[in-house]
Amino acid sequence: xxxxxxxxxxxxxxxxxxxxxxxxxxxxxxxxxxxxxxxxxxxxxxxxxxxxxxxxxxxxxxxxxxxxxxxxxxxxxxxxxxxxxxxxxxxxxxxxxxxxxxxxxxxxxxxxxxxxxxxxxxxxxxxxxxxxxxxxxxxxxxxxxxxxxxxxxxxxxxxxxxxxxxxxxxxxxxxxxxxxxxxxxxxxxxxxxxxxxxxxxxxxxxxxxxxxxxxxxxxxxxxxxxxxxxxxxxxxxxxxxxxxxxxxxxxxxxxxxxxxxxxxxxxxxxxxxxxxxxxxxxxxxxxx
Length: 288
Description:
By secondary structure, the protein is of the alpha+beta class.
C-alpha cells in the first residue's frame, strides 16, 4: 500500500506534470471505483488542473472548484502514460480502473491510469467540492510529519492500543501504514505490542525521532522519482518490513513475522523485544 512518502512523491509528480493541463475525456473501466455521483465525474472535463495535494494517504487533484480524490488502498497504483490509447478501455478487462486524459500547454495528450491488482477491489475515487466531504479525510488525525512531539505524546497517551495499532490508526496519525510502522518501531527499538499509553518519556522521544527520520528519509529518497520507480525505491529502503528470515541490519539475527488473516508485520526480537518471540496469530488459531 502506498503510504505517506510514496503519496507525497506522487503529489510532487502530479504538480510537475499535471498542473496547468486541461482535463479531457475520462474513461471508467471499473464502476466500483467511483464513490460519488454528485457532482458527476464528467464535470471535471474541460477544467484546468490548478493543484495537487496529499491528505494522509489520499492523493488529490484540484480542477476549478472541484477536487478529484483518490485512495490507492492495498493494490492500487497510478501510472503516467505519455501516449495513451485513443480507444476507450473495455470495462472489466485487466487492472485498469480509471483513465484521465489531459491536454497540456505544450500540445501533448498524456493520461493518468489508476490501476488495481488483485481480486479485492478497494481503490476509491471521489469527486467533491471540499476534501472534507470525503469521510476518510474528515476522520484523519494530524499528519505524521506535521505533528509536534508534545502532540505525539498526547496522542499516544490517549489510547491503550498497542504501538503497532496506534501508528497505523489514521484517526490518530495520518499517513503511516503497515510498512513504515514496522520500520519506525525497529529504529526506535520498541515492541509492536507495547502499550501506547504506558511509554515513558524517553521511549516517546525515541519513537517520535524514529518516525520523523524514517518518513523524512523515505520522502527524500522518493522525491523526483517517477511513479513507475516508487515501489522499488520503497522496497530498497526497508530494514525489516517484508524481510522475514533475512538478517537484521543492526544485529544480524533473523527478522521475524507475526501474521494475521490477510496481513503480517515484521520485527527483530533481539532489537525490539529483548529476545522474546511474539505469537504468530495464524499459528495460534491453528493450535486452538
